[in-house]
Amino acid sequence: MRRGPGPFDLAALTLGFAFLYLPIVILVVFSFNASKLVTVWGGFSLRWYEAVLTNEQLLDAARVSLGVAFVTATAALVLGTMAGLVLVRIQHFPGKALFTGMVVAPLVMPEVITGLSLLLLFVSLDVPRGFWTVTIAHTTFATCYVAVVVQARLLTFDRSLEEAAMDLGAPPLRTFRLVTLPLIAPSLAGGWLLAFALSLDDLVIASFTTGPGATTLPMRIYGQARLGVTPEINAVCTMLVALVTIVVLVISILQKRRLARERIGPGPAGRNP
Amino acid sequence: MKGKAERDRLALGRLLLIGVPFAWLGLFFLLPFTIVLKLSLSEPALAQPPYLPIVEWVEEAGELYLAIRLRVQNYLTLVGDGLYLAAFASSLRIAATATVLALLVAFPIALGMARCPPRVRPFLLLAVMLPFWTSFLIRVYAWMGILKDDGLLNALLLTLGLIEEPLVILNTETAVLIGIVYSYLPFMILPIFANLEKHDPSLLEAAVDLGCRPIVAFWRITVPLARPGILAGCFLVFIPAVGEFVIPDLLGGADTLMIGRTLWLEFFTNRDWPLASAVAIAMLLLLVVPIVFFLRLQALGRLR
Fold first, then answer.
1. Chain B residues within an 8 Å CB radius of A106
2. In Å, how far is B243's CA from the nearest CA of chain A?
3. How deeply is A224 buried, as exposed, middle or buried, from its count of CB atoms within 10 A (0-12, 13-18, 19+)?
4. Which CATH class is domain A56-240?
């Protein structure tokens, strides 16, 4: 569509982005409100941030969430990369259809069902619930997301470099490490972040699979939000939003730079689309 | 020629590559479903865990029996008790309404994005994606402060003199619809935009040159060409919306029935695990049908 945006398009874009961003902006603004009321502006203040940083329960929950998210993202990266490789590179093996189904199905599964089914598994295996059961649950669905990201990358992958390495006598594992891995590394970084963000955000599956002493940050936020809107939660949410926004912006700027570099001149790993 | 040892190593590597993720997903995705199915046929009990086994060795008159007791009542309750059917029906209705609303909101945005110069588009795309990375829970929570009786929306409308009494929006179905449209909007915008972006503008120019009015050209050219994107977007919104828990729980009222929330309450509040499992199985069947339908449509679209 070459013809530029008309007044109608500009209005749609303005209203659309206002709709997408205003609620978050309002949330952020009111986290700096001196008044306890969430709708009346009582002057600028950082008191709610102070309250958050001295709230041991919230800090504990944040530690649990970050720990779960870190282990989840790392484990899901390994498992998801393997699954993605299997989906694209191994054409036939018994159970391929089942394998594909198991990778895709968790993506469309309602969270309440995933959470319930995993809890029932842990109960029947008599596993004590806590940090590790939440991590296993998160790793399972995050693996599927990473697998899809890796699969998408491998489908547009130029295999001639791998073939060259193999022809020159590099064994498969070495070829993977020296040729394939560097080429798909940006997608892997994206997959790791996606897994981290998904784990950090999850409320439902964690609520089902957690146990005493492993309350995650979303569970705390949810518990307080049910009782009503408070500036303290606004402050927690603002910190989370800021963290995610900074990370996503940095990543996309880095990727733009990389793409620009590749366009100027193909470096050692530059030719791939 | 490759040696035998090397071939063995290759085969082992391949086996590991397939085996590890296969075993993980089998253990933590497939196996749990068989347990849900089993539990949906067992009897609730006041015990820890709160259900009875379905397979038991029973001794009767000195003889040993392997007794299998399948409690069909859980499913009969689903059909017989109006509450569950109503919850299913209202989940489908709310999800469908929200999908249509999301389409109406997303289409002009996607169209506006596609008409922007190509160098601006990546930034717009990032701007659409960014809220998706931000926590889902936080985005729903943000609406609580806006929609409540003494919230910002009412304060604004009262100040403008548009209303005399604050509107009750929070804890109603309207709030749930707003929440779903807001949360899933990026999923609707992205596939439609991806489709519109690829269109050849000369088609529209040709239609207008031949005397077609722009609105007719839009309806007869732009919309049909964007159909795959529209379909994909609708399913990406509809399917998760049906099973949604957080949005009806935080924004809806006690009378907003949605099946994901019913399952949650059955499990956490009533502690009826077998019935919750039966709800899960019914939900799966309910969702499998539209998903299979969608995949068929996609396959057909690819053939064409």
1. 29
2. 5
3. middle
4. mainly alpha
B21-65: pLDDT as tens digits: 999 999 999 999 999 999 999 988 887 788 888 888 888 888 888
Does residue A206 contact residue A216 with C-beta atoms inside 8 Å? yes
Under CATH, domain B73-303 is a member of which superfamily? MetI-like (1.10.3720.10)
Kindly list the domain boundaries of chain B, sorted by start residue.
Answer: 4-68, 73-303
Please answer whether residues A187 and A153 qualify as being in contact, where contact means their C-beta atoms are separated by less than 8 angstroms: yes
What is the C-alpha separation between B212 and B201, in angstroms, rounded?
14
- Window 205-244 of A, Cβ < 8 Å to B: 207-208, 218, 221-222, 225-226, 228-229, 233-234, 237, 240-241, 244
Exposed/middle/buried for residue A239 (C-beta within 10 Å: 0-12, 13-18, 19+) = middle
Please give the ipTM for the structure prediction: 0.88
∠ Cα A180 A185 A187 (to 5°): 110
The residue count for chain A: 273
- Element containing residue B126 per DSSP (H, E): helix B121-133
Q: How many alpha carbons lie under 13 Å from residue A163 in its C-beta half-sphere?
A: 4
Averaged pLDDT for residues A231-256: 87
